[in-house]
Amino acid sequence: MHIDIKAKKIEPIRQTYSHVARRIGENKPATRYQEAVYDLQPVEHFHYRPSWQPDKELYDASRTALKMEDWYKFLDPRQYYYGTYCMTRAKQQVSTEHNFKFVKQRKLLSKLSDTIHHQISQFIIPLRHFEWGANMNNTQICAMGYGAAITSTAMFNAGDRLGNAQYITQIGLALSEDDSEILDTAKSDWLDKDIWQGLRKIVEDSFVVEDWFELFVAQNLVMDGLIHPLFFNQFEEKINNEGGSSYSMLTEFIVTWDTETSRWVDKQIQVATAESEQNKNLVSGWFSAWLTEAEKAILPLAEAAFENGSEVFEEVKQALLKRATKVGINL
Fold first, then answer.
1. 91: domain CATH number?
2. What pLDDT score was predicted for residue 13?
3. pLDDT at 9
4. pLDDT at 1
5. pTM for the whole thing?
6. Is residue 300 part of a domain?
7. pLDDT at 260
8. What is the mean pLDDT of residues 215-243?
């Protein structure tokens, strides 16, 4: 008996879903990112309006003053959907946990001077509360935003901020050999210490911002654009110069995350400002107003953390202004 085995190519009847095909063209294969994002959000046939906001639909574009012809222009340059996001963060977590284990096993933090230990305790550990605030704000952006392209990535960002807060917590416990008193002290500093009250106020003020895209500008561009370069770049360089290089192994995820996430933030701002002159003026106004408040809040921290705090803060501020100009903001 003779058996002839042949390969047969089966052509799919269609390449992707109809709603995706309407965007990218018929008979074109779609990426998984496109299929996971495009037009995912419902736009009609809602059963009820939210009882807490009866003048709005469950998903309502009027929750921001920003106007967009197509809300799905807010694409993520990283092309994160649930699968790629989880796989990327899982790999990073394995690396980060390895770093923590390495530092603990070799007791590298015990070799830090008391001065460095005190500086990290004083200026880094309280930032776990800032990251928790950022988690709250990005969750709000997801809840009130319009279009799955930006709301889904805002939720990923919210998860990242909780992760940042947890890593800062682990740094504190590693420094104190698992004595939770260091966290209690950091909480007391956040609530009561004078130099933290400006940042605490601006974070708490952001909790009641109703316009979700203004909140995006306030948290993800302005506050993050000052805090992260100041305390996870400049401050870390200062610690390294004083002999605390082992500390950098514990902040690797946060530093890498900030560089990666800035690409997403900048892209969203650029899309918004390029849409219309009205949007550009609106975003520019929000940026200017929040930058003024953020400077008053963060400058005292910079002056306390650095001998030349005013100069360091100005350098970080100028970098943020340059970044804002590139994405279409009028200064």
1. 1.10.620.20
2. 79
3. 79
4. 64
5. 0.94
6. yes
7. 97
8. 96
Confirm if 203 and 301 have CB atoms less than 8 A apart: no
Task: Residue 103: give the domain boundaries.
Answer: 80-326
> How many domains are contained in the chain?
1
CA–CA distance, 225 with 210 (Å, rounded to integer): 21
Q: Does residue 14 register a pLDDT over 90?
A: no
In a domain, 331, yes or no: no
How far, in whole angstroms, is CA 220 from its chain's centroid?
6
Note whether residue 16 is domain-resident: no
In a domain, 5, yes or no: no
Secondary structure in 3-state letters for the chain: CCCCCCCCCCCCCCCCCHHHHHHHCCCCCCCHHHHHHCCCCCCCCCCCCCCCCCCCCCCCHHHCCCCCCCHHHCCCCCCCCHHHHHHHHHHHHHHHHHHHHHHHHCCCHHHCCHHHHHHHHHHCCCHHHHHHHHHHHHHHHHHHCCCHHHHHHHHHHHHHHHHHHHHHHHHHHHHCCCCCHHHHHHHHHHHHCHHHHHHHHHHHHHCCCCCHHHHHHHHHHHHHHHHHHHHHHHHHHHHHHCCCHHHHHHCHHHHHHHHHHHHHHHHHHHHHHHHCHHHHHHHHHHHHHHHHHHHHHHHHHHHHHCCCHHHHHHHHHHHHHHHHHHCCCCC
Q: Please state the rounded mean pLDDT for residues 290-318.
A: 97
* Low-confidence winner among 4-13, 279-288, 290-299, 307-316 (lowest mean pLDDT): 4-13
